[in-house]
Amino acid sequence: KQWYQRRVAVGIVFDDKAPTYIHVMAIKDGSFQTFEFPPFISVHIINSFERVNENGETEIVVDYPTLTTMEGFNHDRCYYEILNIEYMLSDQFSYMKDFKPLNDVTIRRFVMNLATGKGEVIDHPKTWQPQLLHVDFPFVNDNFRGKPFCIVYFHTIQWDNRNAMGILKLDLCKQTSVGWDDLNLFPVEPVFVPRPGGTEEDDGVLLSPVYDPRTDGSELYIWNARNLKVIAKLSSPVRVPWTNHGIWLPED
Questions:
Q1: Which residue stretches of the chain are H helix?
Q2: pLDDT in tens, 57-81
Q3: Phi then psi for 18, rounded to 5 degrees?
Q4: Which end of the chain, N or C, is surrounded by fewer C-beta atoms within 10 Å?
Q5: Alpha-carbon gap, residue 196 to 225, rounded angstroms
Q6: For 147, phi and psi rounded to 5 degrees?
Q7: pLDDT single digits (tens) 167-188
Q8: What angle do CA 119, 125, 130 make, to 5 degrees?
Q9: Per-residue pLDDT of the chain (252 residues; tens, 9 = 90+)
Q10: CB contact burial 111-139 (16+ within 10 A = b; e otherwise)
Q11: Rounded Cα–Cα distance for residues 40 and 108 (Å)
């Protein structure tokens, strides 16, 4: 078969019995340490930073959105099988039936102690509703990348009742959340834009093109990043399909 006829994930299989290894490499000299963790599946990193614990030991902290459990996941089927054209075109395809485990997500923190060589996994509580929600495509304030942080924004997919896409704000320090979605509206991965001169982590706005299938058109939505209230909508002369991984570039 030609390459375009082959399934996206034909050469990828997940081994749920194999541990996960995270390698921490020093940029200065290329030396590295390897940390072993239980099996998990994740696609995107939220943020990472270095800190010193109460014992004066250096730790590397990394946060990921991960599948809550590997139980019930078809390990003969790759995470990326959802991208295969036969699923997209099939009238019989049911996301909740065939890929339900992908909607059970937990935000996990992996802490790697460079002095002891030991790793620890900490689960952040699920503070969103409904809890069976696909939570991914994280975005943080660029001024806090590589630094201790609290706020992260996500794209969400709610497959259980109305196939709604939305956005979600999590405060990992206060363990609170606020979300936005609307029937028949499909935002893409949100981008955070800090307010010029702002110092608070959520002082700014979120931007995302939002597609409305009822009009077959798109608008650029602007939300208050503190409470996810819509503060403006800008019409677009073209339809913007679902995309991911946007970026904001200031004029200067």
A1: 85-89, 95-99
A2: 999 999 999 988 877 666 655 666 7
A3: -85, 140
A4: C
A5: 14
A6: -130, 160
A7: 999 999 999 999 999 888 999 9
A8: 140
A9: 444 445 666 667 777 788 999 999 999 999 999 999 998 888 899 999 999 999 999 999 999 999 888 776 666 556 667 667 777 677 776 665 666 667 789 999 999 999 999 999 999 999 998 888 889 999 999 999 999 999 999 999 876 555 578 999 999 999 999 999 988 899 999 999 999 998 999 999 999 999 998 899 999 999 999 999 999 999 989 888 878 788 888 887
A10: bbbeeeeebeeeebebbbeeeebbbbbbb
A11: 10
Report whether 53 contacts 113 (CB < 8 A): yes
Q: Nearest CA to 128 among 100, 111, 152?
A: 152
Environment class of residue 150 by beta-carbon count within 10 Å: exposed (0-12), middle (13-18) or buried (19+)?
middle
Q: Rounded to 5 degrees, what are φ and ψ at 3?
A: -60, -35
Q: What is the pLDDT of residue 98?
A: 62
* CA–CA dist 201, 196 (Å, integer): 12
Q: What is the three-class DSSP state of 143?
A: helix
Closest CA to 64 of 172, 180, 199, 201: 172
CA atoms of 124 and 65, how far apart (whole Å): 10
Of the CA atoms within 13 Å of residue 223, those in its CB half-sphere come to: 25
